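Example record used in the benchmark description.
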Amino acid sequence: MSQYKGKSVTVARPIADLYAKVSDLGQYQALFDSLPEDQRAQLQGVRFEADGISFQAPGVGDMKFKVAETKAPSHVGFVAEGSPIPIRLAIELAEKGEGSTEVLPVVDVDLPAMLRPFVGPKLQEAADQFGSVFTRLFEQA
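Model output (structure tokens):
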């Protein structure tokens, strides 16, 4: 199993508030649709549903992650649907002081060693993109 950690970001919101927002993603589609066109283009076709998120991963194509596990208030785990290899995404939340939370996206992939040099950089890019997506949405919501 290979693990790719996205960029850790700090959001000026309480951990319980962010957990509620990460565990129910459907509320973000209207917000996403209201973003300026240039910001939506940077997020490459992200779509939100109550139990998951779909997007286009660079070099991989369409991906959909459904909520698979939750542990309030610090963890929400997603699993990729229809992926040729097992992929799991976790959003780890950690309190960083009063009203501030650190958000860390983590991607676990069961990837053969010979493919890691080719696919690994794209998976790291996707992990980093998750941090960017959630940061923009949490700042707006």
